[in-house]
Write a structure and sequence with these properties.
Blueprint: H1 2-8, E1 13-14, E2 17-19, E3 33-35, H2 38-46, E4 50-56, E5 59-64, H3 65-74, E6 78-79, H4 84-93, E7 100-103, H5 107-117, H6 122-137, E8 144-147, H7 151-166
Parallel strand pairs: 1-6, 2-3, 7-8
Antiparallel strand pairs: 2-5, 4-5
The protein binds adenosine-5'-triphosphate and the ligand Nc1nc2c(ncn2[C@@H]2O[C@H](COP(=O)(O)O)[C@@H](O)[C@H]2O)c(=O)[nH]1.
The ligand Nc1nc2c(ncn2[C@@H]2O[C@H](COP(=O)(O)O)[C@@H](O)[C@H]2O)c(=O)[nH]1 binds at residues 17, 21, 52, 54, 56, 61-63, 81-83, 85-86.
Length: 168
Amino acid sequence: MVSAVRRARPDLGLTVSATTRAPRPGEVDGVAYSFKTDAEFDAMVEAGEFLEWAHVAGHRYGTPVSEVERVLASGHSLILEIDVQGGLNVKRLMDDAVLVFIEPPSMEELERRLRGRGTESDEDIALRLGQAAGETALAASYDARIVNDDLDRATAELLSTVEAFESE
Ligand SMILES: Nc1ncnc2c1ncn2[C@@H]1O[C@H](COP(=O)(O)OP(=O)(O)OP(=O)(O)O)[C@@H](O)[C@H]1O
Ligand SMILES: Nc1nc2c(ncn2[C@@H]2O[C@H](COP(=O)(O)O)[C@@H](O)[C@H]2O)c(=O)[nH]1
């Protein structure tokens, strides 16, 4: 869903995460992700370059502190599209963080979408469905929940949620 948010509001403060996942066809290094080898990711961890990082569905993903600083220096709200472990860690570090849980209409629909994308193996899809079930169990600790049924509607709801918190 983050691609739709980027298209709708390119000015928002979305960060570029680092990941050890391989790029999908069409994914450009440095746009949504900086793609790292395991050794490069290890070096970033060692050097304390991450605000947070986590294992998600068989890969590592992290939010570089440099990205947080870049967005905050631009004067925009910081928006992190990260997993629940990462979200809860950021909340511990930044008390004023707002956690928005974006969920599929059902696990069956999530599986249909992942299979339709055609970029993950059966094993990866099973990992992602397991991850999603675990994340849903923790959603109660989030500040808001959005069902991603229709992409345009859900994107609009997310943007209005962000704007509501920005104006508080
Ligand atoms: N509301 C929706 N209706 C139909 N397909 C959707 C919807 N939302 C997401 N998808 C598709 O489901 C798949 C998984 O979506 P998800 O948002 O989890 O992916 P993502 O890795 O964050 O991708 P993206 O960078 O496109 O946001 C993608 O192929 C995406 O295009
Ligand atoms: N804790 C973090 N989680 C992250 C980060 N960047 C992304 N993510 C999460 O990974 C999943 C899977 O991403 P995909 O692009 O491989 O489909 C994504 O939905 C996020 O929840 C991060 O920097 N830290």
